[in-house]
What does this fold into?
Amino acid sequence: MRRFSWFNATSLTVGFVFLYLPMIILVIYSFNESRLVTVWAGFSTKWYAELMQNTAFLDAAWITVKVGFWSSTLATILGTMAAYVMVRGGRFFGRTLFSGMVYAPLVMPEVITGLSLLLFFIAIDLDRGVLTIVLAHTTFSMCYVSVVVSSRLVSFDKSLEEAALDLGCTPFDAFRSVTLPIIAPSVIAGWLLAFTLSLDDLVIASFASGPSSTTLPIKIFSAVRLGVTPEINALSTIMIGIVTVGVITASLVMKRNVARQKADEVRAAQG
Amino acid sequence: MRRFTLIAIPYLWLFALFLVPFLIVVRISFSYYELSIPPYGPQLDLSTGWDGVKAFFAELNWENYAFLTGDDLYWKAYLSSLKIALIATFFTLLVGFPIAYAMAKAAEEWRPMLMMLIILPFWTSFLIRVYAWIGILGTEGYLNQLLLGIGLIDAPLTILNTNVAVYIGIVYTYLPFMVLPIYAALEKMDDSLLEAAEDLGCTRTQAFWLVTAPLAKSGIIAGCFLVFIPSLGEFVIPSLLGGSDTLMIGKVLWEEFFSNRDWPVASTVAVILLLILIIPIILFQRNEQKQRETDG
Amino acid sequence: MAQSPQDVFAPWEDATEKPLIRFRNVTKNFGDFTAIDDLTLDIYAKEFFALLGPSGCGKTTLMRMLAGFEKPTTGTIELDGKDIANVPPNQRAVNMMFQSYALFPHLSVYENIAFGLKRSDMDKADIPARVDEMLRLTRLQKFAKRKPHQISGGQRQRVALARSLAKAPKLLLLDEPLGALDKKLRHETQFELMDIQEKTGTTFVIVTHDQEEAMTVASRVAVMDAGVIVQVATPDRIYENPNSVYVADFIGEVNFIEGHAAVVDGVATISWAEGQPPIRAKTDLSADTQCTYAVRPEKITITQDEPQDRPNKIKGAVLDIAYLGNISTYHVELPDGKVIKAQTANDRRIARRSFTWEDTVWLSWTDTAGVVLTA
It folds into this structure.
C-alpha cells in the first residue's frame, strides 16, 4: 500500500510551482510590449528582434559557445582519462595527491579557482583571452566529467575487459572497442555537463577573460546589475527553451531505450 | 609505457592548472602590496643566486593574516557568510525534505518524470535563475504587485537587496542538491518497514520519527553539506540579490581583487576561506564514506 | 597420442607423456595473503580437468594465472614446455569462458564470436565460415543477429563458449561456466560441454565449487583447500579413495568414526568406542596409528535382524528418516549418542515403510566399504 496523502500532493505542487514559476514569469514577460518589465502592455516579439540586432550579445554568445565546445571536449578527454586512472590505475606514485586534485575543484569556491588561475596566467605571462578561459573551464569541468565517468566505470564488469584481452586485444584496443562503446552514454553525459558548466560560468570566466573575450554570462551579469531588461528576458527565454528541449529529448530517448531493453529481456526469457 | 602516459597527462594538467595556481595564491598571501606590476612583493630574484632566495623567504610574512584578524570587516564577513549559509541551508532543508519525501512516495511510474523536473532547472543557467528573482522581489516586482493587489499589504515590502532575498536565492538555486540525496535515501527505504513499525504499535507520526527520519539521515546530511559548502563562497547571489550591507566573503574577495587591486589581501581572504571550508568538507566525506560502508 | 595399457584415456599414468601445462612450485601472494602455496601440478592435452574447492581456496587464482591475468609470485608455469610468465593474455593460446560470460553487450552474437578471430592472424575471408561453424556447434544459428540481452541465459552461456572456442585455443578455461543456470539446464549443459570437448579435442580446465558438476564432466579432479591441492585423481578414485578427511567430507555424504587402528597384514582393526566391537577395514597402512574411518552412507546396509557374515555390524535406533524419492537416508543413533547415516535405494514403491522412528535396527558393512584416513 502506498500512502499518497494530501500533504504529499501539496508539497509537490508547492515545490514545483516555487521551482518553475519564476522562470515561467520570465518567459511570459519576454513577450511584453512595454520596456517597463513589470507592467504588462500586450504581446510582442520585438525584444527578440532587438536582441538579434545586438552584436555585442551575439559576439559574446559566439565566444561562449566556442569556449564551451573546446573546453568540454578537452575536459571529456582528460576527465575520462582521469576516471580510468582512478578506477583502474592501480597503485602509482602520488595517487592520493591525484585523487585529491580531481575532487578538490568540485568543492573549491569559484572565486578561489578563478583567482588562482588568473594569478597563474599572469605569472606565466599568458595573455588573457579565449585560450585562458578554455584552459580554466577545462580544468574544473574535467573533474565533473571524471566523477560522472568513474561512477559508471566502478559498476563496469571488469571481466568484459579481460575477455577482450583474452581474445587478443591489446589494452588500448580493449579500451577502444569494448570499454568506450559501453561507457559512451556516461562520457556523453559528462560532455554535456561540462558544456553546460562552461556556458553557465560567470565567476571563473570573469577572472580568466581579457577585454576581447567577454562571454555571455559576463555580458548578462553586467547588464543585470542595472536591473531587469526585456532583452535579457528574451535571451533567458531562448536559453531556457534550448535546455528544456534538450533535456526532454534526452530523457525521452533514454526512456525509449530502457523500455526497448526491458521488452527484449522479457522476450529473451520466454525463449 | 602507455599506462604511464595515461596517468601522466591528466596528472600534469591538474598539477599545472590546479595545484600550481593554488600554491601561487598561498605564496602571494604571504606577500605585501606594492604599487608596481605585478602589484605585490617580494619578487624572487634568482640573479643573485642563493642570497636572492634567502632574501625572498625572509620578506614573506604573516602580516596579511594579522591584518585580516585585526580588521573587523573581514571576520565579520566570514561570520556573516557562515550565518547566511547556515540559515539558507536550514530553509533549503525545510523546503526540500517534503518534496523529496513526496517524490519517494509517488507512484513508481511518476518518479522518473519528477526526477527530471527536479534536475531540469539545474541544467538551466544559474545566472538566469538568480536573475528571475530580481523581477519578482523588487519594490515594483510581481510579488509586491500581487500582495498589494489582493490587499494583503498597504505599502510595498523591501525584499530585494536584503539578506532575505539572498536566502530565497540560495534556497531556489540549490534546492536540487538538497532534494536528490534525500530522495535517494528515502527511495531505497522499504515500505514494509513502516508497516512493521505500525504493526508493532507505532502511530504514523511515531513511525516517521523512529523509522523514516533515521533512515533518511545520511541523505539529509549529504544534502545539507551540498548546499552549505558552495553557498559559503557564493558570489553571484549576494551581488545580484543582496544589498550593500550583505557581507559575504566571496563578494569581499571579488571586490578586494577587482576594485582595490590588493592581490595579497585577496589571496589571504581566499586561503582563510579554504581553511574554514576544510571542516565541512571532511565531515561531508566522512558521511559519504559511512554511507558507502552501510550500503556495501 | 599414446594410449595407456588399458586403452583408456589416462595420459597421467603414462610416464612418457608430456604434460600440456606444468605448474612448478607456484606461489601467489596478494599482499600478506597467500592464494596459492607452492603448488605443483601437471595437466595433459585433451584432458577435461576440474579444479574443485570452496570459494577462496585459490582455484580462480590458479585459472587466472593460466589466462595471464595474474603472475605467479614465485615458481613457473609452462605451456607446451615453454614458460609463459611473461606472455601477456592477448598473446596466449589460451582462452577463457568467464563466470559472468562477459559478453560484449554492444555487439551481436555473431560479432561476439568473431571478436577474437578479427584480432588473430586468420584471413578476413575465412572468418564468416569459422563463426558459422561455431554457431552450428552451439546450435545458435538462429540468434546470430541478436544482442546478448535479447537471448536467454542458456543461450548466452553457449555464446560465451562459442566465442572462447572460436580461436581454437590449445587450452580453454571455464570459470564456473554453469553457475548461472538453473539446475535442470545445468545437467543438460554438462553433457553438452563434454560432447563439445570431445568433438573439438581441446583441453578444458574448469573451475567449480559444485562437486557433482566436477564429477560428471571431468577426466580428473583436483580438490583444493587454502591454496593447496589436497588430491588429484579421477572422479571415482576421489569418491571411493579420498586421501584425507577434507576430501572425503567435501565430496558427497560420509560418516566419520575416530579411533585407533591396529594393522595386521593389510587389515586394520579400529577400536573406536567402549563396548562396541572394533571396525575391520582393508588398508594400505603398515603401522598402528590414530585414524579416522570414513564410510559412505550408501555402503551401509540397514536391517531389522542381526545380519550374519558381515565383518562390521552395530545396533542402533532410528532417529530420523529423510525420504528423497529415489533414496532414503536413515539417521541411526548408537547407544553412546553417535549418529550414523545409512542410505537405501527406493527401488520398489513403498506401500509400507520397513522402518520407522525409534525402531531398533542393525547397520552393517564390508571390510572394503570404507577407508582408513590419517590426514
